[in-house]
Design a protein that fits this description.
L-fuculose-1-phosphate Aldolase
C-alpha cells in the first residue's frame, strides 16, 4: 500500500487529503487498514486501533468502510481526485470502449450520479457501495473523481492508473468532435477477459511498484 501511495504521488494524484487507499486487514477481515509507520489501522467504527495515532479522514472512511462491508470479495479500494478523473467525472458518463486499454473496464464500470458534497454521512457511502452492485470494480463519481475496487492493492492501484489515463485519452478524443468507432461486444469481452483478470492487473502494477523500490534505495 505504501508503494501504491508513492506511485499515486509521482503521477500527480495528490490533492491535500482528498484521496485514500484502504485494504482489508488480512488477520481480522472485520477491520480495514494497515499498520506501517505512517498509516492508520482502524476498525469498522472508524476508531484508530494501531499504526500512526492521527485523525482518520472522515469522508474516506465513509466511502471505503461501506464498500468493504457490502462486498466481502473486495479487499482494497482506491479513490483520489486525480486531474483527468475529475474532468471526466463532470460528464457523469462511463468511459467509452474505444481502444484496447479501455476494454479493461468493459462491463465492470458504473457511474454514481448523486453528488452530495463531501461524503460525511454514512448513507452516502452506502449509496456509493450500492452503485457498485455485486460485480462492478470501477465507479466514476459524478463531479467528484474516480474509485476502483478489487482483491489486492496492486490490482486496484493499476485499475486506477489505467482508468485515469483512459479518462485523459477520452477527453483528447472528445475534443476533436470527430465521430468515434467503438469496439464491438465480442472483441471487448475477449480483451477484458485477458486484461482485466485480477492476477493480470496485479502483475501490471509491478513495474510501477518496482520503480518505487529502486528510487527508495537510491535516496
Amino acid at each position: 500500500m505504501a508503494g501504491a501511495f508513492r506511485v499515486f504521488a509521482r503521477k500527480g494524484y495528490t490533492e491535500g487529503t482528498a484521496g485514500h487507499i484502504s485494504v482489508r486487514d488480512p488477520v481480522d477481515p472485520q477491520l480495514s487498514g494497515l499498520t506501517p509507520s505512517d498509516m492508520v489501522h482502524i476498525n469498522e467504527a472508524g476508531e484508530v486501533i494501531g499504526g500512526a495515532q492521527r485523525p482518520v479522514n472522515a469522508a474516506g472512511f465513509m466511502i471505503h468502510s461501506a464498500i468493504h462491508k457490502a462486498r466481502p470479495d473486495i479487499n482494497a479500494v482506491c479513490h483520489t481526485h486525480s486531474p483527468a478523473g475529475k474532468a471526466w467525472s463532470t460528464f457523469g458518463r462511463h468511459v467509452d470502449i474505444i481502444n484496447q486499454d479501455s476494454c479493461t473496464f468493459y462491463e465492470i464500470q458504473t457511474v454514481y450520479e448523486n453528488f452530495g458534497g463531501v461524503v460525511l454521512e454514512k448513507a452516502e457511502g452506502e449509496r456509493i457501495a450500492a452503485v457498485l452492485g455485486d460485480k462492478n470494480r470501477v465507479a466514476i463519481l459524478q463531479n467528484h473523481g474516480l474509485l476502483t475496487a478489487g482483491s489486492t492493492v496492486d490490482e486496484v492501484a493499476y485499475l486506477f492508473t489505467s482508468l485515469e489515463r483512459t479518462c485523459e485519452v477520452q477527453i483528447m478524443v472528445e475534443s476533436t468532435n470527430l465521430p468515434k468507432k467503438r469496439i464491438g461486444h465480442d472483441e471487448a469481452q475477449f480483451t477484458a477477459n485477458v486484461n482485466a483478470d485480477p492476477a493480470t492487473l496485479y502483475t501490471e502494477f509491478q513495474l510501477d511498484f518496482e520503480y518505487e523500490i529502486r528510487k527508495s534505495r537510491e535516496s
